[in-house]
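Private note to self, pasted from the team thread so I don't lose it. Backbone tokens:
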């Protein structure tokens, strides 16, 4: 029996890439997983990878780019009696690469919608029940991106995630609900590209560390998965 046995984690964007690895890391601890992709069929590979673990799965689908889309995903999850002990806000998109002078408001708003506004709505939907239960882990995937004006909408969206993480953590202090941001590192995924520094699996030690914090553990923090991995010499 793992340390998260019987708990439920909702991992947005767990159909591939980093979210898929987070789902595996949680399942290794016995955690039941709500797998999400834009379409259910996108989640098939993750479902296969989770088969060896004796955990329950729920599959939800939907685009997080609009408020209605996010609410539709929330409704599907809440049909699971609303049980979400761990909310892993992972899904995100990259910006088009442009000179900073050329970005339009639409470039910013489309990235902010998926990468930031959806997180606000998801946190607001699931945190109250966590607070009532006296237990919850909200982990927002951030980024170490800096000095890349050509990807400014993406960088701005992650800065917003970091600030919201701090604000939400402060609101939930001393409730048993921890809210932290995790920088996965630059990883070889569809988003990170083939030249990234590390393999996608390297996110797992950091990803699980934040989920396993005790109730009096860190909150409102920005933590690096690659630093955690190096500290644990994995
Ligand atoms: N890779 C890196 O080097 C790196 C570095 C720093 C931070 N990050 C962050 O890590 C997280 C995961 O990135 P990744 O590299 O794993 O990305 P990825 O391989 O491109 O996977 C993105 C995931 O998000 C989902 N998704 C994309 N757009 C969506 C939308 N509009 N609505 C709902 N779901 C959507 C995808 O679902 P479908 O399969 O259905 O499309 C997929 O599961 C992101 O927050 C990213 O910003 C990544």
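Design output:
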């Amino acid at each position: 029996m793992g340390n998260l046995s019987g708990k439920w984690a909702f991992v947005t964007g767990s159909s591939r890439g980093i979210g898929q690895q987070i789902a595996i890391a949680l399942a290794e601890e016995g955690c039941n997983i709500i797998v999400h992709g834009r379409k259910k069929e996108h989640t098939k590979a993750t479902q296969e990878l989770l088969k060896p673990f004796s955990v329950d799965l729920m599959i939800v689908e939907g685009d997080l780019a609009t408020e209605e889309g996010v609410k539709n995903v929330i409704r599907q999850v809440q049909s699971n009696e609303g049980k979400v002990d761990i909310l892993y806000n992972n899904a995100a998109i990259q910006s088009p690469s442009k000179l900073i002078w050329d970005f339009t408001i639409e470039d910013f708003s489309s990235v902010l919608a998926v990468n930031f506004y959806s997180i606000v709505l998801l946190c607001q939907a699931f945190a109250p029940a966590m607070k009532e239960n006296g237990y919850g882990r909200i982990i927002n995937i951030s980024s170490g991106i800096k000095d890349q004006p050509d990807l400014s909408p993406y960088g701005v969206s992650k800065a917003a995630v970091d600030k919201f993480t701090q604000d939400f953590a402060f609101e939930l202090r001393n409730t048993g609900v921890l809210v932290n941001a995790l920088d996965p590192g630059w990883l070889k995924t569809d988003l990170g590209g083939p030249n990234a520094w590390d393999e996608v699996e390297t996110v797992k030690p950091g990803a699980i560390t934040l989920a396993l914090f005790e109730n009096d553990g860190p909150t409102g923090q920005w933590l690096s998965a690659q630093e955690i991995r190096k500290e644990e010499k994995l």
